[in-house]
Amino acid sequence: MERNFDPKQVSIKIDTPLLQTIDSPADLKRLSIKELETLAEEIRRVIIQTTACTGGHVAPNLGVVELTLALHYVFDAPTDRIVWDVGHQCYTHKLVTGRRDRFHTLRQWQGISGFPKRDESHYDAFGAGHASTSISAALGMASAKHLKGCPSRIIAVIGDGSMTGGMAFEALNHAGDLGRDLIVVLNDNEMSISPNVGALSSFLSRKLSSRTVMSLKREVENTLKAIPGVGSNIVQLLKKSEESFLSFFTPGMLFQALRFQYIGPIKGHRLDRLIETFKTAKSLKGPVLIHVGTVKGKGYEPAERDPARFHGIGCFDPKTGETRKENVPSYTAVFGRCLTELAEKDPRIVAITAAMPQGTGLDVFAQVYPKRFFDVGIAEQHAVTFAAGLAAEGYRPVVAVYSTFLQRAYDQIVHDVCLQKLPVIFAMDRGGLVGEDGPTHHGVFDMAYLRHIPNMVVMAPKDENELRHMLKTAVLQQGPIALRYPRGQGVGVPLDPEPHALPIGVAELLREGDHVTLVAVGAMVMEAVAAAEILAREGIEATVINARFVKPLDVHLIGQWASKTPLLVTVEENVRQGGFGSAVLEALSEEGLLPRRVLRLGIPDTFIPHGHLKKLRRELGLDAEGIAHSVRHALVATLPAIHEAPVRAIR
Ligand SMILES: Cc1ncc(C[n+]2csc(CCOP(=O)(O)OP(=O)(O)O)c2C)c(N)n1
Ligand SMILES: CC(=O)[C@@H](O)[C@H](O)COP(=O)(O)O
Ligand SMILES: [Mg+2]
What we know:
By secondary structure, this protein is of the alpha/beta class. It is 40% helix and 14% strand.
């Protein structure tokens, strides 16, 4: 049982004499290897102590301390461009590029981001948060440099997990063809968030079975022998040792076939070797891939022991690695358990994740139904079309995916699922604002990017109990259907013994009042209910409708109340442009039911920064107080006694 850890008890007192002398990468270049090693230890302490208070990507960052120092030691950023894939491993980079003194603000409201951001520093050559983009971006930069005749070096740093994304291979394929000067550093820790998956992963980690190696060897020897003159010489060379055969035919072979020069695998925590290798790579022409082996969580025992838990973690006790225990189950956990229960009675249910078994709660399902569970790697596009294939054969595939990552698979949803009316279920976790990960991860576009696709049904539950009913609804649906729910703890409502199907397109009336109708969806329903309670204390009576469905909308119920009250307010944690409120406006206008005054509350047309979820909702006026304030403000003309609260910054 974990102790209930209180992050407020943690203070950051870290002695870092060497780090205090590093204001830019130029300061690194005068250090000896010994001093760099000491610096690496100081940086590890800073990362652990800081993330213990702020939360963050602990294990990925601890794994690349030496790698980052060596890169900045050898190359000349910002003239040379370092492009981080995902960007969740950029803390050392930030610490040595002028952000040391702001590092304690990591991931906090108005503090520095947990990811590289072009407008945060000119050392952040390319912004990221989603995986597998680095080689494409770096190749674009290399091509631009080539066109401009500029000699600087471009380096992409990509993990073995991110290398499973199709885009990485599209870029390698193109890079091999273009032949530009480009260095790809493959940071191979044999882990994605969970252990890495796929044939490529085994190939990289040289886990080829000795039988495979021997039969490959025999095949190659025979082929080579058949080449007159040259063949037998190469065979002799290869025969010298198993080792030489392995290095010829394992990872290097793959990248060499793509016309990359391959160096490695090299030890990723040896600064001397890294520096020597990067210097060699700097002198080479054309595309080069350096394969570096690192340990995820290096130097912090709890993270090395459980790198998946420390991949991304909230506040923790730095001494023990313990985290605070939550009393209310998360939406994710409720989803995972409910799907596993439904699967017992319905053998058609299969589950798919794109490298997020824990994050989506599918780890529970995987344990019970390993054969009906598929982790496809960081490959959201493939996940969706793979699901379409399963659905075409009579299965009920559930693609459990973070809302933000499903953006990758838009055409697959349209072309492979909806056009063919295939019963694929999209369980979109992290719908709405996610907090500290910020704009790369807020799932605020899904209602807008799904609701206009023919044949698609889109739902969002008001609490974790309704999530279960929606999941049951989804598995009984004959066509594509999506449910989106937020990151984090549920509301804490009791769960019905059995989930039941909801009638498609029917909303729920939660409260009746004559002054205003609040139509909310998803996590915003409870905020709207709380807003109605605040307003009631001031004499303003609100009707509250839980929309449940973004598509099809319950035009009947919404229209009925829209015509009874002078003000209609829609509330969503989604972009206002094209979102739920827009859907309500469209539907009511088509029916001729538009009321005199409509207010759409939601995410404005701007990217929302990182920060604590409560703070973000407050700033956006999407908490109960904010909703009540907007209603008061809109009603002020008819009820002049109501005072205005101050309008907040990013609304
Ligand atoms: C498109 C996309 N899908 C999923 C994720 C979630 N995600 C973040 S990091 C990660 C694993 C990355 O593994 P790797 O590149 O090997 O880096 P490591 O954490 O091991 O250093 C995943 C799946 C993401 N950021 N982007
Ligand atoms: C970098 C990345 O994409 C993931 O690690 C993500 O930060 C996880 O987010 P959750 O903490 O919401 O699972
Ligand atoms: Mg990895």
